[in-house]
Amino acid sequence: MPKHFLHISDYDADDIWEILHLAKELKTKFHGKDNYKPFQDRSLAMIFAKPSARTRVSFETGFEWMGGHALFLGPNDIGIGKREAIKDISRLFSRYNDVIMARLFDHQHIIELAQYADIPVINGLTDYNHPCQIIADILTVWEHRGNLEDLKIAYLGDGNNIVHSWLQLATKFPMHFVCSGPKGYEPDMETVQMVEDGGLSSYELSHEPFSAVKDADVIYTDVWASMGQKEEAEERERIFEPFQVNGALLNSTGKETLFMHCLPAERGREVTDEVMESKNSIVFDQAENRMHAQNAIMVYLAGHSS
Ligand code: CP
Ligand code: NVA
Hints:
The protein is of the alpha/beta class. It has two domains: about 10-130 and about 290-300, Aspartate/ornithine carbamoyltransferase (Rossmann fold, 3-Layer(aba) Sandwich), CATH 3.40.50.1370; about 135-285, 3-Layer(aba) Sandwich (Rossmann fold), CATH 3.40.50. Helix content is about 40%, strand content about 15%. It contains twelve helices and nine strands. The strands form two sheets. Strands 7-6-5-8-9 form a five-stranded parallel β-sheet. It has a four-stranded parallel β-sheet with strand order 2-1-3-4, sandwiched between helices. Helix 6 (about 160-170) links the parallel strand 5 (about 150-155) and strand 6. Helix 6 (about 160-170) runs parallel beside helix 7 (about 190-200). It is globular, with a radius of gyration of 19 Å. The termini are close together. Phosphoric acid mono(formamide)ester binds near residues 54, 133 and 263.
């Protein structure tokens, strides 16, 4: 049975820690230029229905560093769910490849892809979530803080796929998570409920950015219009403007606060140049860690699939 990586909530805290420790180990190996080839003669199919820089380059570079071969299949290549049924792609690729990573629109499609695959399927972002990103993010916070105790994350902006994966992580790792954005752009209620029912972390919904970031260890933001919503960009720019992460907000927290963004950033909209370039910004450490986190996820899945 293959083990998939679709949601953080599918994993226990111990599994996540195993992946994080492995990611640190693989990062050291990568920087040490160690010869580490667990995927020799293996292939990774990367299916993209949406654009990407980090996900594509980090998966391809990481898998090839580990000895394998990665195939890039862009939005115009296989026409998943259009030219061919998702469940047929699952079974076809299971005959050729050893791992599938897919970035799709509809979340149900990644679930269907996994359901029919005999090989591990990794979620490289859907409209609902982005689990690889949040594993890389928590790895980065851990590296910078040295621990994950008494963590307050203040997320500013749209209650989107990034927020859903953070909320799922909050069901496994204790934290205080604040989501601050305009009314009508809150995260999915069922996912919020998972955090509230879990009782491990606290969740706060805020419409007031300055009180949201008080005492925050991390201020996190993302684009106001995600892929698939770009026609709403102009309207959203007006609505989200009070939630921009700028110098005044970053300096108002009352402590040294890290700034994070999954990238790509739209500088001048959700975040200013000043914040992106500030000493508090760890966005490129975060982006680098995508590769180490994903390498760890692939090694972990290979070791837990039968
Ligand atoms: N953060 C992230 O997933 O970036 P890409 O969209 O460039 O892959
Ligand atoms: N919320 C963004 C994340 C990009 C990595 C999007 O879905 O476009």
